[in-house]
Amino acid sequence: MAKSYDVIVIGGGPAGYVAAIRAAQLGMTTAVVDEFVYKDGEPSLGGTCLNVGCIPSKALLDSSEQYHKVSHQLAAHGIKTGSVELDVATMIARKDKVVKDLTGGIAQLFKANKIDWLQGHGKLLEGKQVEVTPTAGKKKPQTYSAENVIIATGSKPIDIDAAPLDGDRIVNSDGALEFTEVPKRLGIIGAGVIGLEMGSVWSRLGSKVVLLEAQDDFLPAVDGRVAKAALKEFEKQGLDIRFGARVTNAKVGKNVTVHYEDKDGKQSMQLDKLIVSVGRRPNTADLFTEDSELLLDERGYINVDENCRTNLPGVFAVGDVVRGPMLAHKGSEEGVMVAELIAGKPGHVNYDTIPWVIYTHPEIAWAGKTEQQLKSAGVPFRSGTFNFGATGRARAMEETAGMVKIIAHAETDRILGVHIVGPQASELIAEAVVAMEFHGSSEDLARIIHAHPTLSEAVHEAALSVSKRAIHKAN
Questions:
Q1: 279 is known to lie in a ligand binding site
Q2: pTM value > 0.85
Q3: 187: annotated binding-site residue?
Q4: What is the pLDDT of residue 135?
Q5: Per-residue b/e over 43-58, b at no fewer than 16 CB within 10 Å?
Q6: pLDDT recorded at residue 1
Q7: pLDDT at res. 136
Q8: What 3-state DSSP class applies to 290?
Q9: Angle ∠(275,38,57) on CA atoms, nearest 5
Q10: Which of 60, 346, 354, 441 is most open to solvent, judged by the fewest CB atoms within 10 Å of its CB?
């Protein structure tokens, strides 16, 4: 007889493992089915984010930033270092250790919360049953039953026929984390979040980076003024971003030859490595049997309501596999919401205040609406800005690039959006999210005392600027 649980979660990434931990905290017997295997051949919790996404990319971003500082910035502080040597193997090994420490920590949390980790591929069957095909060996599939099933199978990189992956010269974002040496000339298809982050890593380490972006606009989801300021900084850093560039063919020979078309016609270039970074798609292949009757939308996402309920009673779906932004923290909060709803408690996710971050240098972060969205919707607004270059802390840090922009409703003054490009933007955006969660106004932020000297003073001054009373700039 199949073992039964209160909750079975399919997928052990940020949406799935968080849902499982919260369900276990609420007293429910819980199991997680996960099939991820790390490059060392060992099963590993944490999904894409911890293994080949958010965490390893940030580890490399930090390493590359340290290298760049030592090579180019410390002299301004009176620190002379002499020649600097880069050891890529050690840098990758450090990244791997960071990953192992965190994924091992999740396994310990599972033990502490008495969560069963079922290693293998999970498939939803009819009647809230889950078939688990073991990852390794020739063990037969096992079937488990549950009162509730939470699908959290995440997403994977989109491949394109024009640039087939070969695992060495042409890679996706996973492969971009495993280069054994710095490519002299690196191409990236796509100048979105992942493309920019990977480009930043290898550019700081010495690569000549070219990003081929099919769209004509830079980061269309970002506020226009912030995107423009960010693009200016990236171009200063040497990132060669070409817009309206559609790749038609990429072939591996002695080098990677890339053919593309732009406003000037047909073009080609020779590269050492090529990263394909054109977005991600939900992992729904071989996820359920036809008789389970799980409903997908036209793009392959699992169809859910505002509380992440699917069309099947007792079956939920969260994270990248459902509508909304593909962000780890969004998936985690959906996981918590669903676990609490199953336990009979109120659960809620406010999709209007989810923070977004691009971990380039300078960082880009935002929450709420952009100016272009508000104009399109006909919402009256006022906005205020403040440059980091006018703050003492940013000056002292030699991190003067960027700005804070705050948008408030013209009549109620409620904060509608906050947009930041600059140092520590990923941390500064949290203050804005808290203010927006409590329906705060620009006046509220303007009246809160911010410590001096800090980067957060730029948020304070931007709030003052909404009503044209910033102190440290001309209004």
A1: yes
A2: yes
A3: no
A4: 83
A5: bbbbbbbbbbbbbbbb
A6: 60
A7: 74
A8: helix
A9: 45
A10: 346
| Strand residue runs (E) in 318-455 | 356-358, 363-368, 381-387, 403-409, 415-422
The alpha-carbon radius of gyration of the chain (Å, integer) is 24
pLDDT value of residue 82:
87
Which contiguous run of DSSP H or E holds residue 124?
strand 116-125
Q: Which residues contact 273 (CB under 8 A, 6 or more apart)?
A: 169, 170, 171, 179, 183, 185, 186, 187, 256
Is 59 in contact with 95 (CB distance < 8 Å)?
yes
Mean pLDDT per 10-residue run, the chain (475 residues)? 91 98 98 97 96 96 96 92 94 98 98 98 97 85 97 97 96 96 98 96 97 97 97 97 98 96 96 98 96 95 98 98 98 98 97 97 97 98 98 96 98 98 98 98 98 98 98 95
Q: Distance from first CA to last CA of the chain, Å, rounded?
A: 74
**Which is nearest to 389 in space by CA: 157, 233, 248?**
233
Give the domains, in start order, of the chain with CATH numbers: 4-157+281-349 (3.50.50.60), 170-278 (3.50.50.60), 353-466 (3.30.390.30)
Q: Is 452 a catalytic residue?
A: yes
| SS3 state at 466 | helix
The answer to whether 241 is annotated as binding is: no
> Does residue 335 have a known ligand-binding role?
no
pLDDT of 139 reads 82
